[in-house]
Specification:
By secondary structure, the protein is mainly alpha-helical. Helix content is 54%, strand content 6%. It has a 3-stranded parallel beta sheet. A two-stranded parallel sheet has the order 4-5. The relative contact order is 0.15. The structure holds tryptophanyl-5'AMP.
Length: 339
């Protein structure tokens, strides 16, 4: 098994990232490395330049994100932890795959449509070709599984389409170059929603900080955000189908289930019939209990810039060693002469 996944170093790690992806990165690291497989986790800093950004913030956020990932349990001795910018083979493979990706495929990407909005002409070319870089990220390492939240599913389907077409067009039927990567999406936390609007996903780009729990929030802030989270006046139901028409309540129950390592039925067995006056403090306390140690470790790690840079340097070196041969095979498959 080869596990590969990435995160953009644009600001804080939030609870959606943690429950949708990072927690599974850690679980897979523990499982897969014990079986002799390999995990590669990276900061998608090249993806981050597809939107307007401030260079000094990108550099600071990249180091902060390394500290956050290590605080969450990513162990740089067992997983390869790196940033794309130090492994130029990602960008090179993207160019080679640009010959295979189709305009029509990219035009259908919902994230492109959402982020470009009405101003497509003014969006960066990088925002449009972003999913091809994402395909390169995973195909470069022969990823078998990619742990992500639900919002990345479409991008991974595109990576599979690119791999399939490349294999068909340029490889012998019995010797495909690229492995088709399978998304791994956690059922209880596929899409954590905003605390202010149960129909919008929890996101770093939401202007309201009250909409998300950041992994850096203090215990007081977490309790306050949960207390102020939007809900409805009804008590929690005993049956989960009754949550379907109540997106905010459904989201809080899903967060509780994911944090407690339970499921929605289990949470409703305990809290069905209770009002939010009782459920919200219980949820807040659970979050504080689980996130407190991560927060403390993060604050400690982020002070040591040299150690963070060393993690990225060493991880990038290991990633390059895996990336170079695959890139060489891709050049050869395309008939590109390199001496
Ligand atoms: P990014 O940086 O937006 O998010 C990182 C991971 O967090 C998940 N996530 C969520 N999961 C559940 N609920 C939410 N509200 C929520 N918000 C974010 C995302 O699904 C993701 O798994 N394009 C990617 C980064 C990337 C990548 C890759 C991922 C670049 N190359 C290759 C996998 C493989 C992104 O912007 O994720």
């Amino acid at each position: 098994m080869r596990i590969v996944s990435g995160i953009q170093p644009t600001g804080n790690l939030h609870l959606g990232n943690y429950l949708g992806a990072i927690r599974n990165w850690v679980a897979m690291q523990d499982e897969v490395s014990a079986q002799g497989g390999q995990c590669l986790y990276f900061l998608a800093d090249l993806h981050a330049i597809s939107m307007p950004h401030t260079p000094a913030d990108l550099a600071a956020n990249t180091r902060e994100m390394v500290a956050a990932l290590v605080a969450c349990g990513i162990d740089p001795d067992r997983s390869i932890l790196f940033n794309q910018a130090q492994v130029p083979q990602h960008a090179e493979l993207q160019w080679l795959l640009n010959g295979t990706a189709r305009m029509g495929w990219l035009n259908r990407m919902t994230q492109w449509k959402d982020k470009a909005g009405k101003n497509r002409e003014g969006a960066s070319v990088a925002l449009f070709t972003y999913p091809v870089l994402q395909a390169a990220d995973v195909l470069l390492y022969g990823a078998t599984h990619v742990p992500v939240g639900d919002d990345q599913k479409q991008h991974l389907e595109l990576a599979r389409d690119i791999a399939q077409k490349f294999n068909n067009d340029f490889c012998a039927p019995d010797a495909p170059l690229f492995t088709l990567p399978a998304p791994f999406i956690p059922p209880e936390a596929a899409r954590i929603m905003s605390l202010r609007d149960g129909t919008a996903k929890m996101s770093k780009s939401d202007p309201s900080d009250m909409s998300r729990i950041n992994m850096t929030d203090s215990a007081d802030t977490i309790m306050q955000k949960v207390r102020k989270a939007k809900t409805d006046p009804e008590p929690l139901p005993a049956d989960k189908t009754e949550l379907d028409a109540r997106p905010e309540a459904k989201n809080l129950v899903a967060i509780y289930a994911a944090m407690a390592g339970s499921n929605v039925d289990g949470v409703l067995a305990t809290f069905g019939g209770e009002g939010f006056g009782r459920f919200k403090p219980a949820l807040g306390e659970l979050l504080v209990e689980k996130l407190g140690p991560i927060n403390a470790r993060f604050l400690e790690l982020r002070e040591d810039r040299e150690a963070l840079d060393a993690i990225l340097r060493q991880g990038s070196e290991k990633a390059r060693a895996l990336a170079v041969p695959m890139l060489g095979r891709t050049y050869a498959a395309l008939g590109l002469v390199r001496g």
